[in-house]
TrEMBL record:
It is a peripheral membrane protein. GO terms for cellular component: bacterial-type flagellum basal body; plasma membrane. One of its GO terms (biological process) is chemotaxis. Residues 1-13, 24-36 have a biased composition (Basic and acidic residues). It is found in: Cell membrane; Bacterial flagellum basal body. The gene is fliN. It comes from Chromohalobacter moromii. GO terms for molecular function: cytoskeletal motor activity. Residues 99-169 form the Flagellar motor switch protein FliN-like C-terminal domain. This is Flagellar motor switch protein FliN. Residues 1-75 are annotated as: Disordered. Pfam families: FliMN_C. Belongs to the FliN/MopA/SpaO family. FliN is one of three proteins (FliG, FliN, FliM) that form the rotor-mounted switch complex (C ring), located at the base of the basal body. This complex interacts with the CheY and CheZ chemotaxis proteins, in addition to contacting components of the motor that determine the direction of flagellar rotation.
Amino acid sequence: MTDSKNPDQKGTEDEWADAMAEQDASKDTDPSKSTDESAADAEEDLWAAAMAEQQSTEEEESAEITSNENASRAQNADHEVFKQLDEGAAGTTPRDLELIMDIPVKLSVELGRTRITIKQLLELAQGSVIELDGLAGEPMDILINGYLIAQGEVVVVDDKYGIRITEIITPSERVKKLNK
């Protein structure tokens, strides 16, 4: 059938028939997909396969690196343990103590304590007297880094104050002092 307005145009029925035959041929290979769609799916399948292969390779490498690191850590730990056993217990104790001998600690002596309100604190002026809970002549607490370790009495040596240790506090006595 030719178009009456366009007599030079060949029959469109032949072109339609050819297009339909081509479409039917592509449906025979995969009825749900056109030629372009099947090419795109094939390309996606290739990408998916490549990504899966890459991921499995990375996982294998990661597992290998992790196992190597764990093995080297275990080997280093073994060397450290065996070095200590080889050197002997008597040889390591004095050396370990030498490492801490030069560490500074803060020693303080506490005369006593008290609790005051903020109002009383703000009313303090030069010459004010604050009453402490410690009694005159009572031993003073000797603290190392804030922990009670001994008690002593105040002495004066060459115009400077000092403290004479009168009692070392045992761990059980330290606990009792904390409860006061």
